[in-house]
Design goal:
The protein has nine helices and seven strands, in the order E-H-E-H-E-H-E-H-E-H-H-E-H-H-H-E. It is of the alpha/beta class. The protein has a single domain, classed as NAD(P)-binding Rossmann-like Domain (Rossmann fold, 3-Layer(aba) Sandwich). Helix 1 packs across helix 9, helix 3 packs parallel to helix 4 and helix 4 packs parallel to helix 6. It is globular, with a radius of gyration of 18 Å.
């Protein structure tokens, strides 16, 4: 059989069930909408029910199939219940996108314990809890795609973000380790590492800082949430079936 371009596997996700955490806004919402547009049945997870409702409305208005579940990603019982409900209702779980994350920026000498703890709990522990819970049905089915949203801050550091950078570096280490553990069961585990993306989180930096940031990016602009969502779609699809343990930077050349 020919293996030419005409027979290449597409990024169609019809028949796949996907969980996206932190999908109430920003990157998570863009990722959820993109996976739904590709045919996946979406379960949107966030602690903010109002923002979840907005995401659900947008997906359904575009003809997508989605539902929502509220969850605190730092609570093991809630995470397990979400995964169990999804498997029971949808008949399985094929894709997990660990996107939920926060920032609590401060220079290291001024960083409070609760700022450190909150960021590590949501960004790193939350990723671990959902990965552990999702791994069970994926291993049983001998198929799965786990995509973790890391950050270039976890690769190069960023002043004022010791907690955030540490959490995202941890996500990268977790990704590579779990990729090795699950590869024998045909479950791939990858990460995307966005740079500065135009979201509410980066808007809070202010125009002056953002102008300086753009000057450091070879492509000369901030990324769009869709840039990240498209990369996640690729990694979630059969087109990326032979990729695991990889960290895909989406940063306009910032870390070159």
């Amino acid at each position: 059989m020919s293996s030419g371009p005409e027979n290449r596997i597409s990024t169609d996700l019809t028949g796949k069930v996907a969980i996206v955490t932190g999908s109430g806004r920003g990157l998570g919402r863009a990722i959820a909408e993109t996976l739904a547009a590709a045919g996946a049945r979406l379960v949107c997870v966030d602690i903010n029910t109002e923002s979840l409702a907005e995401t659900l409305e947008r997906i359904q208005a575009a003809g997508g199939n989605a539902e929502t579940l509220a969850c605190d990603v730092t609570e093991p019982e809630q995470v397990s219940q979400v995964v169990d409900q999804v498997v029971d209702r949808c008949g399985g779980l094929h894709i997990l996108v660990n996107n939920a994350g926060i920032t609590r920026d401060a220079l290291i000498m001024r960083m409070k314990d609760d700022q450190w703890d909150a960021v590590l709990a949501i960004n790193l522990k939350g990723t671990f809890l959902f990965t552990r819970a999702a791994a069970r049905p994926m291993i049983k089915a001998r198929h799965g795609r786990i995509i973790n949203v890391a950050s270039v801050s976890g690769l190069m550091g960023n002043p004022g973000q010791a907690n955030y950078s540490a959490s995202k570096a941890g996500v990268i280490g977790l990704t590579r380790t779990v990729a090795r553990e699950l590869a024998g069961r045909n479950v791939t585990v990858n990460a995307v590492a966005p740079g500065f993306i135009a979201t509410e989180m980066t808007a809070a930096l202010g125009d002056e800082i953002l102008t300086q940031v753009k000057q450091q990016i070879p492509l000369g602009r901030l990324g769009d949430p869709q840039d990240v969502a498209d990369a996640v779609l690729f990694l979630a699809s059969e087109a990326a079936a032979f990729i695991t343990g990889h960290v895909l930077t989406i940063d306009g050349g910032l870390t070159v």
